[in-house]
Design a protein that fits this description.
Arc Repressor Mutant, subunit A; single chain; 2 domains; 4 strands; four-stranded mixed sheet; alpha+beta; Glutaredoxin
Length: 154
C-alpha cells in the first residue's frame, strides 16, 4: 500500500462518510510535504483515492499558491503583486529580488537555494508590500528589509 493510500485511510477515519472531497487539500499537502511538490500524476492518484474528479483535484492544485508543481529551492520566496502591494512598490521589489537572487520569476537559483515566485495575494493589503519566505510572512518591505531577510537565511 502506498503512503498516499495509507494517508487517505487515516484521514477517512476522521472525516464524516461522504466527504471525500474534503480530503483533497490535506492529501495535496501530504504529497508536497513528502516530496516537495505535487505533479499532475500525484493529482490523478489523489483523484483515484478520493473518487473526486481529476479536474477538481487539478483545480485545487493550481488555484492555491502554497502548492508547488515543480521542484523548488531550499527557500521559496513569494512576493505579492496584487494591487495594494503593487501600489506600494512590489514591482520594484520583484526587480530587486531578481537581481539579488540572479533568477527570473518562476526560476530556481543555480545553487538551489532560492526559488522566486509572484503570487496574487498574501492577504497583507494594509501592510503592503508583502513577501512570504518559506512559511514566514514579511510586511512593510523595502529593498533594505529584503536584503536583511535574504541575508538571514541559511
Amino acid at each position: 500500500m502506498s503512503s498516499l493510500s495509507k494517508k487517505f485511510e487515516e484521514l477517512s477515519s476522521v472525516y464524516p462518510t461522504g466527504t471525500s472531497s474534503s480530503l483533497v487539500l490535506p492529501l495535496l499537502h501530504f504529497v508536497q510535504e513528502e516530496k516537495g511538490y505535487v505533479t499532475q500524476e500525484d493529482a490523478a492518484a489523489i483523484s483515484d483515492c478520493t473518487g473526486v474528479p481529476a479536474i477538481q483535484v487539478t483545480e485545487a492544485l493550481t488555484w492555491y499558491t502554497m502548492f508547488r508543481r515543480a521542484p523548488a529551492g531550499r527557500h521559496v520566496v513569494k512576493i505579492c503583486r496584487n494591487i495594494s502591494c503593487s501600489l506600494r512598490g512590489a514591482e520594484r521589489l520583484i526587480d530587486h529580488l531578481r537581481k539579488q537572487l540572479g533568477v527570473e520569476v518562476g526560476e530556481t537559483s543555480a545553487d538551489g537555494r532560492f526559488t522566486l515566485l509572484t503570487v496574487e495575494c498574501l492577504a497583507s493589503c494594509g501592510t503592503a508590500p508583502a513577501m512570504q519566505v518559506d512559511e514566514t510572512y514579511h510586511e512593510n518591505l523595502d529593498e533594505a528589509a529584503v536584503d536583511r531577510i535574504l541575508g538571514s537565511l541559511r
